[in-house]
Amino acid sequence: MNGHDESAEMQQRRAVLKRVAWMLGGAISAPAALAILQGCSAKEPVPGAVIATKFFKGKQADIVSAIADVLIPKTDTSGALDAGVPAFIDSIMADVYPKDAQERFSAGIDAFETAAGAGGKTFLDQEVPQRAATVQKAIDAALAGEHKDKPFILVARELTLLGFYTSRVGITENMEYVPVPTVYHGCVPLSEMKKHVYWE
Amino acid sequence: MEQNSFDAIVVGSGMSGGWAAKELTEKGLKTLVLERGRMVRHPDYPTATKDPWELPYGNRITQETRQRKPVQTRTGYPTPANQHWFVDDLDNPYVEEKPFDWLRGYHVGGRSLMWARQSYRFGPLDFEANAKEGVGIPWPVTYDEIAPWYDKVEIFAGISGSTEGLYQLPDGKFLPPHDLNCVEVDFKKRLDEKLGRKLIIGRCANLTAPLTHNESPQRGTCQARNLCIRGCPFGGYFSSVSSTLPSAERTGNMTLLPNQIVYELIYDNDKGKATGVRVLDAETGKQTEYFAKIVFLCASALGSAYVMLNSTSSRFPNGFGNDSGELGHNIMDHNKPGNSNASVEGYLDVAYTGRRPNGFYIPRYRNVGKDKRDYLRGFGYQGRAARSNYNRFNDTPLMGAELKQAALEPGSWTIGMTAFGEILPNHENHARLDRDKKDKHGLPLLVVNAVVRENERKMEQDMKNDAAEMLEAAGYKNVTVKSDSYNVGNSIHESGTARMGSDPKKSVLNKFNQVHACKNVFVTDGSFMPSFGCQNPSLTYMAFTARAADHAVNELKKGNL
């Protein structure tokens, strides 16, 4: 489906919903409206790949991808790469973060690769279990120290979590996402819930 | 001239303008509604049904938005989900002589689309305070006079809440209340036992049940999505776009024109009346005049004050109806000096389902009954308890499969609340025009100068200490009380610029929101407030607007306007 068709289709759906809403008012059922509105959803990010980068230079995309992959690996459910986290970090860095934070993050990526390689294999040359150990060591060290600015590895983890748990796979595979809950129940035993309910 | 003439002109299409449009058209007046921003029609809200993953950047504010909207974004509001509802600050400048957060949207519906929907009556305590304490000027209206109008607007809008019998926060005509969640019920019980303070569910303009009337067939019940700020295609909450404007439209008496910037009232010296308004087309710059028997200014406290300050004549050299010298003065808001948080142990086997567009409310208790403090008035708290999300891992060493597994469980409970404190009217807190500075339309800029003063500063101590006291009394842990710098305007409740009163020498409007010196002009947005309580004000604007429209039509019929 190309962009033009998608937009026309969405317009048509909105028009249908509008008609239904006006006709039925309070009687419109949530599932009916939902079926109309959910027919078309956003494009899925390409797993793991950063094709045209806005922020990353050289090997930076590979380094951040490798970090995200060990922070939230693919298990029996999708991981950070399936959710498109590297592309997410590339775009949020380029468009959301101010210049000084961008420079710190960029320098942080490069320093991470160099430090990880000191006296042995560079980070990207390491096998996945070794990469995980390298990242864990960096997180532990960052949490132990006091810092004026949030250390690179903690920013990388924060953005990996944000990118993953706002992605389609991150939400739908790990939470009970109900777009139109219809009603709020204030006190429900967890035993009656399928899994962690999406509350954001 | 003929085609530009109407019975009534309403300036602004938000909370107050929508009500003026509905009441005037339903009473048979051919009414022109002029909105300075673009058209919005129910249920066309561009982001309303987007899933979280359809919003870019994890819904964080981009640098580009910060650059275009430096004032709006400094408060954290305009995210990719709702930034289209907030003005471009570069195109809409004003002068901050003191820091002032002027958060607003220029579109049909105004801030009634983005409001937090909290709906509380002002009570006798609020209407009597100025007179009893000798502050500002007395209210010219009593609670008993306005109470039936509160009934009317609550029933039409659909306000949910619990009946509590509190003198300082009168009950209304409520739809069923939202649930408090398990921890909030616990907090309520402990506050009552330990401190004798009351916690209630917020009263909000979300339909927890069908409306009790058949006037709004386009509205359905609240679907517990908590995405209200984007606009609700279900009509689950009250906005002028979902509620009052459709009613006005159905009468066949409304003409609604977007992109029309009203910049001046036309005054006829011989008749001693306003005859209409002068308008600039926001897109083409074309100037037009529209004429009517009555004019309702509903353009917001600063917007309406702007139009009046910019309407000078030999009769009104200092601004329209400004014989008192109070026009633009006495700006109020709600003081919000920081929020308080704590972590709650236990309750790990319970949670909630659905997303509640509401929180709890701790009504004012200071200077109520026997309580006496070294400051005047009081404050209320709005807050909620919730289970924490994946952000809780940011301070832990967790990663990998272990993190994914841990994230399948909801986090522990946290509770947070924010105090909203009454600000006293003060003549020095004011807005005026700077005619040497112009916007892109060539119109003079508004200058705003308002700060919190001694009474508010004293009250802040209680707002912070009491929050800590309550959270600690409840046995919660890691209690933190933040001190945020607060700019007037940040509660988005700016008001008071054309206060009502009995004495024309001290007030701009009379008790029916009529300009003392020009009875066919009514001002019914937040401008009219002589004092401000600590309650969210929109419900009060609705009630006074409906009452003013009723009075206007009666006076028109009697030939008095």
Q: Could you describe the 3D structure shown?
A:
The complex is a heterodimer of chains A (200) and B (561). Chain A has 200 residues and is an all-alpha fold. Chain A folds into two domains: 1-41, no CATH class; 60-173, no CATH class. Chain A is built from eight helices and one strand; from the N terminus they run ααααααααβ. The radius of gyration of chain A is 21 Å and the shape is elongated. The two termini of chain A are 30 Å apart. Chain B has one domain (2-557): FAD/NAD(P)-binding domain. Chain B contains eleven helices and 21 strands. Chain B has helices at residues 15-26, 63-68, 70-73, 124-133, 143-157, 182-195, 240-250, 301-309, 400-407, 454-473, 538-557; strands at residues 5-11, 31-34, 95-96, 159-160, 174-175, 200-201, 254-257, 260-268, 273-281, 287-297, 334-335, 339-344, 350-353, 360-362, 379-387, 413-422, 430-438, 444-449, 477-481, 514-515, 518-523. In chain B, strands 1, 2, 7, 8, 9, 10, 20 and 21 form an eight-stranded mixed beta sheet that branches. In chain B, strands 6, 11, 12, 14, 15, 16 and 19 form a seven-stranded antiparallel beta sheet that branches. In chain B, strands 3-18-17 form a three-stranded mixed beta sheet, covered by helices on one side. In chain B, α1 (15-26) runs parallel beside α11. Chain B is globular. The model of chain B has no long low-confidence stretch (mean pLDDT 97). The chains are: A mainly alpha (200), B alpha/beta (561). Chains A and B meet through α1, α2, α4, α6 and α7 of A and α6, β13 and α9 of B. β1 (185-189) of chain A pairs antiparallel with β13 of chain B.
